[in-house]
Automatic annotation (TrEMBL):
The keyword Flavoprotein does not apply. It comes from Kurthia gibsonii. Belongs to the bacterial diacylglycerol kinase family. This is Diacylglycerol kinase family protein. InterPro entries: DAGK, DAGK_sf, UDPK.
Length: 119
């Protein structure tokens, strides 16, 4: 029983994290992009494999954005002064999101462009 309670509590904390990040501008932008891509997927008509790849890309961007946010919070907790390592940590985390976002856009183009322009 205790194990189930603990497991349920962990879920609640995870949902609290998701709720918290939903108030952040960058995450909202990614959520908006996700909705646009999902609508485009339904309107265009893509295969199960294409849905899988698209959803993986979306999950990667959203998860990394949350990780970036977490790293920003921890850095701010450790110091509010300028520190090269603080800058490095935040820039690395932001770079990770950017890489995932760029490759997600490329994946989206590979999936959608041939269907829209029939080549
Ligand atoms: N303590 C610090 N020391 C050195 N550089 C910092 C520090 N805090 C932030 N920076 C630099 O300023 C940039 C912006 O920092 P900030 O904390 O505003 O992040 P952000 O990406 O704008 O986050 P948010 O999503 O909260 O707007 C960082 O990417 C980093 O380059």
């Amino acid at each position: 029983m205790n194990v189930i309670k603990k497991f349920f509590k962990s879920f609640m904390y995870a949902f609290a994290g998701i709720r918290a990040v939903c108030s952040e501008r960058n995450f909202r932008f990614h959520l908006f992009a996700m909705v646009v891509v999902i609508i485009a997927g339904f309107l265009t008509g893509i295969s199960a494999n294409e849905w899988t790849i698209l959803l993986l890309a979306i999950a990667a961007v959203l998860s990394l954005e949350m990780t970036n946010s977490a790293i920003e919070r921890v850095v701010d907790l450790v110091t509010d002064e300028f520190h090269p390592l603080a800058k490095r940590a935040k820039d690395l985390a932001a770079g990770a999101v950017l890489i995932a976002a760029i490759f997600s856009v490329i994946i989206g183009l590979i999936i959608f462009l041939p269907k829209w322009f029939e080549f």
